[in-house]
Amino acid sequence: xxxxLKNIIYNGMSVNAMxxxxxxxxxxxxxxxxxxxxxxxxxxxxxxxxxxxxxxISAYIIKKGKSVKQIxxxxxxxxxPFYLLLAILAFFQDNHLSLYILMICAFSxxxxxxxxxxxxxxxxxxxxxxxxxxxFFAERYRWMMIANMLTMFVSSCCMFIFEKxxxxxxxxxxxxxxxxxxxxxxxxxxxLFKVKDAKLEIDNQTTFFKDIIAAFKRGNFSTxxxxxGTINFATSYVTPFFTIFMLEENKIGMSLIIGLTIISQxxxxxxxxxxxxxxxxxxxxxxLEIGCLIYIxxxxxxxxxxxxxxxxxxxxxxxxxxxxxxxxFAIKLGTNNLPLQIVPQENSFIYLTxxxxxxxxxxxxxxxxxxxxxxxxxGSIDNQFILWSVFWSFGVFxxxxxxxxxxxxxxxxxxxxK
Length: 418
Known about the structure:
The structure is a single chain. The longest helix is centred in the middle third of the chain and has 36 residues, at 130-165. This protein starts with a helix and ends in an 8-residue tail after the last helix. The chain is globular. It has a single domain (2-192, 207-417), classed as MFS general substrate transporter like domains (Growth Hormone, Chain: A), CATH 1.20.1250. It is 82% helix and 0% strand. With 418 residues, the chain is mostly helical. Helix 3 (38-45) packs antiparallel against helix 16, helix 13 (254-282) packs across helix 15 and helix 14 packs antiparallel against helix 17 (384-410). The chain has 17 helices and no strands.
C-alpha cells in the first residue's frame, strides 16, 4: 500500500507538471500567437472541465468490468503524443490552420486523459482507506502544487529568456514547454504501473443507463449535481480571462504573469493546512463559500488596478494573487473532496461521472458565454474600465449564486458537512 500511495502522489506531480507546461495560461498565450480570438480563448480556458464529459465513457467501460488500472494506463499512453504535435505547431505560426490543429490536439490530449481521470477517483475511493483519505489527498494536492510551482518557474525563466534575447522567436519558447509536457506525461504513465489495482463494487443486475437514472433519483443528489455545475460555471467564467486582462489591460509580460502565478501557488501550498482544519471542523461547504467570497474580492481588485500607476498596480496584482492562492485551494478541496465523502461505495463511478458532467456543463457554458460577452462588449464600449466592470459583474453574480445554493444544500446534505 505504501508503494501505491507514493506513486499516486508521484503521478499527481508529473501530471500536474504536464498540464502546467502545456495548459492553462501557457496554452492560451500560445493560442494568441496563433491568432486565437475571445471565443477560442474561452473554450480553451474551459478545456480541462469540458473533458469531464468524457468521464461518461470511463463509467461505461468500468461497468463492462474492465480493470481501472488497465484503463488508466492505456488511455494515458495514447494521449501523450499529442503534446509533441502541439510543439511542432511552433514551426507553422503563419499557417492559418495552425490554430485549428492546436485546438484539435488540445482537445484530444485532454479528452483521452479524461478517460483516465474518470476512473481515477472511483479507483482511489476503493483503494485508499477512509480514515486516511482526507489527509492523504490534502498531502497529494500540496505536492501537486509544489510540482506546479516549479514547472511554472521553469516556464517563466524560459519565456523571460526569449522575451529579452529572442523576441522575434518567442513562439519557440512554447515549443520547449510542449516538449517538457510530453516528457512528464510519459513519466506519469510509468508511475501508474506501480499503483495497486482495485476491484470496484458494481451492480451487475441493472443496465448502465438505469444506474444513471437511479443516481438522480436517490436522495437529494440532484441538488448537489446542480451546485457542482454552478460553482464550476463561476470559476470558469472568470479564471481564463485573468491572463487576458493582465496581458492586454495591465500591459505586463507573460513571464511576469507566470511569476505572479507562482506567488499564488506558494500561498496555495501554505494555505492547505488551514483549509484542511476548517474542512475537518466545519465541513467543506463553508470552505467553498469562503473561497467564492475571496474570488469576488479578487475580481474587484482586478477592476480597480486599471486606475493605478505602475507601482501600485503591481502591488495590487501581488496582493491579488496571494488571495487567489487561498481561493483556489478552498475551491479545489471542496469540489474534489465533497463527492468522495457523500457518494455511496456501490456504483460510485456513476455518481462521480454525473458530477463531472455537471461540472463540464457549467464550464462549457461559462467559457463560451464569457467569450461572447467580451466580444460584444468590445464592440459596444470604448472605456476599458466600464467594459471590464460589466464583464466581471457577471462573474461576481455567478459566485453569489453559488454561495446561496451552497447554503441551501447544506441544509439537506448534513452528512457532507460533518
